[in-house]
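Morning. Coffee machine broken again, so started the prediction first thing and wrote up yesterday's gels while waiting. Chain of 487 residues, entered below exactly as on the submission form.
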Amino acid sequence: MSLIEKLSKPVFIDGAWIRPLIQGGKGVGATNGKTAGAWAAENAGGTIAAIGAAVGYGENGREVPYSYESKTRHGRFEEMLSMSVKGCQLQVETAYKASNGKGRVRINFLKMAGGSMRIMRQVLEKTRLESGGNKIHAVTMGAGLASEEDARICADEGVYLDPIISSVMALKVLLNRTYRNWAGRYQDVIGAVVYEDPWLAGGHNGITSRENPDEPQAPYERVKALRKIMNDNGMHEVAIIIAGGVWYLRDWQDWLDNQDVGPIAFQIGTRDLLTKECPISDEWKDLLFRMKEQDVVLNKFSPTGFYSSAYKNGMMVELKERSNRQVPFTQKLSNSMSAPVEGKGVPANKYSISLEDKEKVDRWIAQGFTIPLPTPDNTLIFVTNEKAREIKSHKTECVGCISTCKLSTWCEDADKKYSTGKTPDPRVHCIRKGLQEAIAGENLDNSLIFSGHNAYKAADDPFYRGENGTALIPTIKQLIERLTTGD
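Came back before lunch.
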């Protein structure tokens, strides 16, 4: 059987036989109802990003950003939840109409996102069909493992749950925590398992404490091990969706009709950005064509505490340099910490460092990095006065977009008075600000550009070359047709 024939064979995912092609679930405006509907209309899997789902669009076609009136973090959090539900409803309606009853429409929630379970419950309730069922066919759940309650909500609303995992260990935890404990219908709620490669996928990555982020592991053996665990638990027919590192499907032809990995499909994230329907700015699309190998870096600057993969722009470089300007400190002089930090704007006798570190700290201060900021690890980083004001503004303008934030110390638990109680960590970025600036396309060098590590392949892919060497941006239909050839 030829590669084209293999890629034309449907796979049973989320209750239907569809093409083995799934749209990546990029958040904060990078995927929406229009794009998800276009994928589903081709009998593939379309994915709506629930996080930051647009509530509307301006005359220029750009999404209308969320606006907040409350003066408190909790008040802004509640406003964000309300707007998120409204945005998800709009995108689901758009996708449902555009799909023409074909394919599958999925919605992607992040477990770590603020109020994700509340949003999910309301969105599924508000998108029910009068005839029964739902306009959404499945929920994908990543950035944290799905729980039994997530499964119960999906089962009650008649939609599938597609957990996103990155390792055998994560799958075992998922099965022990939920799958084996579900009774009857809960055992049938999983429509597919998404394997998100922690070294190749864009956005947040599921690298565990037992894995070395600097030593990538080839995906085949990891997926083969996943399939064995799934088979041992009666999940022989549940498809594995490969996410991360997928560009040319010809590179994966040995995985098709392979008993070691079983039924599979492929999630397309970065290439989906380079389509006419994709709502990201032209500036962002142009940037993808300029990326080079190694331009996407694995980092730990996310306020979630997870590793993530993002384009190495000025923002990423500054964050790395910020962390490099870091020394241990105490608030009292001692034999080992006998040198006070001195400089304009530094409170007298507040920070003490070692004599060995004093020389480099004095050098940083002389270079303009005059503001010391404490971290939760009893260290100081040194930043400019301008950067210190920016970090402070990100903390004070927090809307609770993630359930616990290392930067703002937000926690959505009312019993904890909406605070983690920890020292704010100035070594991480504000994920909301970074992603919003990326989708606006106004300053990509200072934005958070999540990207898969194969983004550099766009520059040499002949599919994107138009006449006279200009870049050609295809429709989603054209992209899917191309993918089915293996290219």
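The longest strand covers residues 104-110. Going to sketch it on the whiteboard this afternoon.
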